[in-house]
Design brief:
Number of helices: 4
Number of strands: 5
Helix content: 25-40%
Structural class: alpha+beta
CATH topology of one domain: TolA/TonB C-terminal domain
Shape: elongated
CATH superfamily of one domain: TonB
CATH class of one domain: Alpha Beta
Radius of gyration: 77 Å
Order of helices and strands: HHHEEHEEE
Length: 222
């Protein structure tokens, strides 16, 4: 009959090494924890020393405050002496007023007489006329007319109507062309009237007056 080992006997044999292994593991953990705390404390101490060293260095590096310069003592200076102002009496005399000379007399020039012409009467009581009447007027014009050569060459003919003023002394003024034919014939008609002898002046209100006359001059070629 064979003898069989029980399982409980085998477990008892393994208990001792397992327990020893557990103690070793726990011991290593404890040792590691102690070594970690020591390392952290030493590191913190090193940092504290560095910090204190830096603080001490900055305190030493600061320069001491320099005291302000002393202010000079104030000396009360005496006020400058004031000069005495002596008032002098006004001895100046007022200048005598000089009389202005009278303005020089304005030289008088020759007196000019302004003649005011009377009004020209269009319809007088007695009309002005050529000396000797209308027949003598036509005769005088025929004897004194100078027919322009250009008008003869161009066969210019016609009647020129003029107006003029017979002054109170019989002279003629203000000659104007009311209706003309050509520049040459109009110019000759005005020359004829301008060269006429004095007329007998017209009358208005029983006295001689300026009157306006109208005259047609006929230019014909034979």
């Amino acid at each position: 009959m064979e003898l069989k080992k029980s399982e409980e006997a085998n477990i008892e044999k393994l208990r001792a090494p397992i327990v020893s292994i557990g103690f070793l593991f726990i011991g290593s953990l404890v040792l590691a924890s102690f070594s970690y705390t020591a390392a952290t404390e030493s590191a913190s101490e090193d940092k504290g020393e560095k910090k204190s060293a830096e603080i001490n260095y900055t305190q030493v590096a600061q320069k001491p405050d320099t005291p302000p310069p002393p202010t000079p003592p104030q000396v009360d200076a005496p006020p400058p002496p004031q000069e005495e102002i002596i008032e002098e009496e006004n001895t100046e005399t007022e200048p005598e007023a000089v009389a202005a000379p009278p303005p020089p007399p304005i030289p008088k020039g020759p007196e000019t007489k302004v003649e005011v012409k009377e009004e020209v009467i269009e319809f007088p009581d007695v009309e002005a006329q050529f000396p000797g009447g209308a027949a003598e007027l036509q005769k005088w014009i025929a004897e004194n007319v100078q027919y322009p050569q250009t008008s003869i060459e161009m066969d210019e003919q016609g009647r020129v109507y003029l107006s003029f003023v017979v002054e109170s002394d019989g002279s003629i003024s203000n000659i104007a062309i009311e209706r003309g034919v050509s520049p040459d014939l109009d110019r000759e008609a005005k020359r004829l009237v301008r060269s006429m002898p004095k007329w007998t002046p017209g009358e208005a209100g029983g006295r001689k007056a300026r009157t306006r006359c109208r005259l047609p001059i006929n230019f014909t070629l034979n």
